[in-house]
Design brief:
251 residues, alpha/beta, three-stranded antiparallel beta sheet, 11 helices, six-stranded mixed beta sheet
């Protein structure tokens, strides 16, 4: 019982189908407070659907999701206050400045300028605070999206492929921001990414999904073996990519 109370998120045997597509098939896991978890899988593996159910954006066909012991069905208003999320392609009004955008979203949580200034500093957007969103680079837009997701000081943060399409420098900038959050120890992170080095660098635990099922989960050092010396090799081995690569090389 104590173990359950210590968990920020509990996912118990959830299923989700879309007509004939069985996107999620009996997934279960638990995430304790302060842990950074990477949810990995090839396109169509079911990871986005899983995360959307955790975020309260979709309802499972069966199974249960509890966040701090609460469910979306009964406690949506409470849960919205403690989570932050940033989607892969977050769009903001292009004629607003960064600061105006942050003030707009801060008003939804009845937060003032002080918190806006804090997230601007945290995400290193000070020199772009007065810039129109439409003039920002891809990396700067992603930092703005992260800043918006952090306004309410979320206890649980969901990031869906936050660095896709970014150059290495912008990606590293975002990693450093997340590492600062991790060091503070007040945030639980659920990250989806296609960059194996991102998961290795940021996350305490790895969950690999394919065809709607968990193939493997655990701390990276416990998952690797002589046949999978790094996360790339493990991912390819588990998701069948190795057979595909061998087939291509033979052809």
């Amino acid at each position: 019982m104590c173990l359950e109370k210590s968990m920020q998120i509990e996912v118990k045997n959830i299923y989700k189908s879309f007509k004939d597509v069985h996107a999620v098939q009996g997934i279960s896991f638990a995430i304790p407070a302060g842990e950074f978890v990477a949810l990995l899988g090839p396109n169509g593996a079911g990871k986005t659907t899983t995360v959307e159910m955790m975020e309260g954006l979709r309802k499972p066909d069966s199974g249960e999701i509890r966040i701090q012991g609460k469910t979306w069905q009964k406690h949506e208003k409470e849960l919205r206050k403690i989570i932050g999320l940033s989607l892969q392609e977050t769009r903001f009004p292009e004629k607003l400045t960064c600061r105006e955008t942050l003030r707009l979203f801060a008003s939804f949580f009845e937060l003032g300028s002080e918190r806006v200034n804090e997230v601007i500093e945290l995400t290193d957007l000070g020199d772009k605070a007065k810039s129109l969103v439409g003039t920002l680079s891809g990396g700067q837009r992603q930092r703005l999206a992260l800043a918006v997701s952090l306004l309410n000081r979320p206890e649980i943060l969901f990031l869906d492929e936050p660095t896709t399409g970014l150059d290495p420098h912008s990606r590293l900038d975002l990693w450093n921001i997340l590492k600062t959050l991790k060091d503070e120890g007040n945030t639980t992170l659920i990250l989806t990414t296609h960059y194996m080095e991102e998961a290795e660098s940021l996350c305490d635990r790895i969950i690999i999904i394919d065809e709607g099922k968990i193939l493997k989960e655990g701390r990276l050092q416990d998952l690797l073996n002589e046949n999978a010396r790094n996360l790339d090799e493990l991912f390819i081995q588990l998701t069948g990519g190795k057979k595909l690569l061998e087939t291509i090389s033979i052809v």
